[in-house]
Amino acid sequence: MKPPCTPLRSAAATLLAAAALISTMAAQSPQTQPAAGLPQAVAYPAPTNLPAPTNLKVLPATMTGQQVNDLMRQWQAALGARCSSCHAKDYRKTDPDGRPLLDFASDSRPIKAVARSMAKMTDEINTNYIARIGSSADPVTCGTCHRGHLSPDPFVAPADAPPPTR
Questions:
Q1: What percentage of the chain exceeds 70 in pLDDT?
Q2: Which of 26, 31, 100, 157 could form a disulfide with 89 if both were Cys (CB 3.0 to 4.6 A apart)?
Q3: Burial annotation 45-59 (CB, 10 A radius, 16+ → b, else e)
Q4: pLDDT at 49 over 60
Q5: 45 falls in which pLDDT band (50, 70, 90)?
Q6: What's phi and psi for 47, nearest 5 deg?
Q7: How far is 108 from 98, CA to CA, in rounded Å?
Q8: Interaxial angle between packed helices 7-28 and 110-128, expressed in degrees from 0 to 180 and rounded to the nearest 10
Q9: Taking phi first (over 0 means left), then psi (-120 to 50 degrees means alpha), and beta for anything else, what does residue 80 get?
Q10: What secondary structure does DSSP assign to 69-90, as a single string?
Q11: Is 118 exposed, middle or buried (0-12, 13-18, 19+ CB in 10 A)?
Q12: Which residues pair with 100 in a beta bridge?
C-alpha cells in the first residue's frame, strides 16, 4: 500500500521537481555567461569611492561597496529592474538636481525581502543541485528565469513538442 501524501512530502516533491526543471533548463541553455554565473553588467560608468555596504543579510559581510555595486548592476540587467525597484528613496538626502537618493540599507520595500529569498534560492539550487551534475558547467542565475524581466514569463512547452518518453 502506498503511504498517504502529506503536505511535507508534497512540498518536497514540488521542490525537487522545480529543481530538476531549473537544472535541465540551465544545462540546455544556449546562453553563455561569465564565470561568476551572472549576466553581463549594464554598460554605464559605475560610481567610484563607494562606502562599505551595511545591512547585508544574504551577501557576505566582507564584500566591498564596489563589489556590491557590481553585483547589483548584474542583477539589474538580469531582471530588467532599476535600483529603486528594491531600494527605498531617502527624502532627507538629495542629489545635486534635488532628487531623493536611495537608502540602500533600508528594508522598507517588501520586494527587497523577495530579492533576498531569490538570491538564497539561486545559491541553494547551484550548491545542492547544479554542482552535483557532472556535465553542467553553467550555474543558475537571475537571468536563467527572468531573462531581463522583473516578473519571469511562465514556461509553456511548444505545441509541437514530442511527448516525454520513459
A1: 70
A2: 100
A3: eeeeeeeebeeeeee
A4: yes
A5: low
A6: -65, 155
A7: 22
A8: 80
A9: left
A10: HHHHHHHHHHHT--GGGTSEEE
A11: middle
A12: 94
Instruction: Give CA–CA dist 50/42, Å, rounded.
Output: 18
Spatial contact of 50 and 59, defined as CB atoms under 8 Å apart: no
What are 137's three cell numbers? Answer: 558547467
What Cα–Cα distance (Å) separates residue 116 from each residue in 47, 49, 54, 163? 23, 25, 15, 37
- Provide the grid cell at 16: 525537487
Residue that has been written with the C-alpha cell 564584500 in this structure: 63
CB atoms within 10 A of CB 149: 13
Please indicate, yes or no, whether the overall pTM of this predicted structure exceeds 0.70: no
In a 3-state reduction of DSSP, which class is residue 102?
Answer: strand
Q: What is the largest CA-CA distance in the chain?
A: 72
